[in-house]
Each structure stands twice: as C-alpha cells, then as structure tokens.
Amino acid sequence: MITPAQTVGPYFSIGLPWPDGPDVVPAGTEGEIRLRGRVLDGDREPIPDALIETWQADPDGRYETPGFRGFGRCPTDAGGNWAIRTVKPGAAAGQAPHIAVSVFARGLLHRVVTRIYFADEDEANAADPVLAGLDEAARATLVAAREEDGYRFDVRLQGPDETTFFAV
Amino acid sequence: MSTHPPLNWPDYKSTRLRHPHHIRPLTLTETELSSPRLGDRPLGPHDHDLTVHGDGEPIGERIIVYGQVLEDDGRPVPETLVEIWQANSCGRYRHALDQHPAPLDPNFEGVGRCLTDREGRFKFTTIKPGAYPWGNHPNAWRPQHIHFSVFGRAFTQRLVTQMYFPGDPLFEYDPIFNSVRDPEARERMVCAFDLSTTKPDWALAYRFDIVLLGPDATPFE
Questions:
Q1: Residue B58 pLDDT level (bands cut at 50, 70, 90)
Q2: Contacts of residue A12 in chain B, CB cutoff 8 Å?
Q3: Which of A20, A37, A46, A66 is most buried, most CB within 10 Å of its CB?
C-alpha cells in the first residue's frame, strides 16, 4: 500500500537544488575529484531539466560515516551537463568501488537508478558481482572514463548504448 | 499490479524519448540499503511555512498540509528530509520557463522543507496551488498538486511524488495522475480534508501520509 512515484516535472529547480548540492565533500578535501557527465535522450539531445543524485561510501568503503555526507545532487544545465565534487569511494565488502546514481527528469515518471564504476579499477571491476552479471556492452555503460581531474560518466536514457539501469 | 507508473507511458508525451527500455534486476547490497543522513542539514526556522517569506501575505487560500512518512508495515520514518515545491494560487511557478500568463505573487516562492519528527510527522503551511495549462495535448490542464520529495532510511526508499486534492475534476484528463494504473494507488496520492486539524479562522487542513516500501523489499517491474 505504498505511495506511487510521479515525475519531478519541468520546474523542480525552484525547490530541489541546494547551493552545496554538488559538493559531496568541501572544496580543498584531500583526494577530491570531479565527476561529471551529460544526460542525453533517445535523439542524443541533451536533457536540460534532469537532476542527478549520487550516493557513495567513504574512501574506506564505509557508508553513513558521520561527517561524510556521501550524497550529491546536481541539476543539469542547458547543455545537459552535471558535475559533482567528491572523493573516490573505497571498496565496500565484496564490491568494486562504485557510486549509486538516481536520475530524475521531466518525462521520467519514476527515478531511474544506475551505478558508476571506475575505469582504473580493472581488477576490482572484474570481481564485482553486479558487473559480472552483465554482458560486455551493458557493463561498458557503467564505467566512468578517467579525465585529468576526475572521471566522466554520461547517462543515455535510450538508444543502442542505453545506460544500464537497475530496479531498486 | 505495480504501484509505480510505467516509464513508457505514451499519453505523457515527454516520456517518449526519455524512458529507458531495459531495467535490470539488482541484488541489493549495502549501497542500496544505506541512505544519506540529512538530519543535520541547515533548515531555516520558517522553511516549513511557505506563507511568511515575502514582505506581505501571499494571495490565495491558506492551508496546512501535514502527515507522516511511514514504511508499509506502519513503522514511522523519523528525521528524514521532506522537500516540497508548487505553483502559486494562480497556477504559476516562480520559474523562468513557466510562461503561463497568470500573475506571479511577489510574496510566494513555492518552496518548503522540513525534517520529520521522531514519529515521522511533518507539517507545512502554504497556499493552495492553482491548476494550470500545459502543452501535452490540446487544452491539457494539470490538477492542483504539490510536489513532494522524501529520502526514507535506505537508498531504495527515495521517492518523488505529487500530492493532489480531493475531488479534482481534472483527474480523469491528466495523463500524469493516470500513469499510476491501480485506482487504489492513485487515491493514495490524494490528500484528505481534515476539519479537526483546521486552524479556526485561519487555515483549512489536509492530511497526506507518504508510505515507503520496506528498505529491503524487492520491487516488481
């Protein structure tokens, strides 16, 4: 008897973004990285009214550590771009380092959920039980590419390389 | 019948290019069973009262919207962040892209937030939002609604929904409301008028409980 989801609609940006939403960690934190990407629709057009939320472990792989928010929130801009400031999560028990992601947008009646893994974690990724259940193409959509100051992760809501989404 | 709406829902045109085609099962891990603890986020003393942020009173029907965030076994969700946003009494959002030719209200932002108490309770004072037209189909109008966002105590419980008002004549024409296929589930998005919580000579009251799936329940698609 649960409450159903509804879309965030086109005007969530009056209410949901926080000034410090994209700062999972404060500026100047040791080991800080930028995690950024775009959100694209089935025509490969950028989605300017999406909201990305991230949830992750601390650098030691622990969740809900006091003093470590672990949560990021960033609306997309006119070009469909989002970015957060964070630190790379450690490996939680039995899993490769990863970040959980919720995507909200006008036109999404319910959030969709995916995971970000890291391109420079080949060994851990090879042993990760979630990645192990996917074929190569589905798996590739979950691996963020290394960039100079962090990683890039694009979300494709549709298309031949549609991002792998999970029922959560 | 699934409670949540399908992602592919052609009556709501914006779903066409935005709904993923594949959603895969996931064995839940610590990642999904934990959740941000946002109880220490700074809240202003008036964040729960949307009527006191201007130089004067906003125009419209003053209302109290209150309820509880619960799990489906009745257990309350304490100290979880509840965020709301809405149109003003004329059906206009304070958003650059809202071009509906209805007046903006200088005394109404349409944004509120609060933390639930130990019993999972929340309470907002606001203005009843107006209905407004949108471009989905000819003469399309959204029923009056308030957007709600809640976290719960696990990543699995994160929910964004909309609260509607009893007896709205626009229900049968609204593809977003009707994207929820189970009629009983649709009713759970409609608040209940509550005379007993009404503040006499001041504001009417509506109750809206938000019920989340237990954190480790398996969703069905």
A1: very high
A2: 85, 147
A3: A37
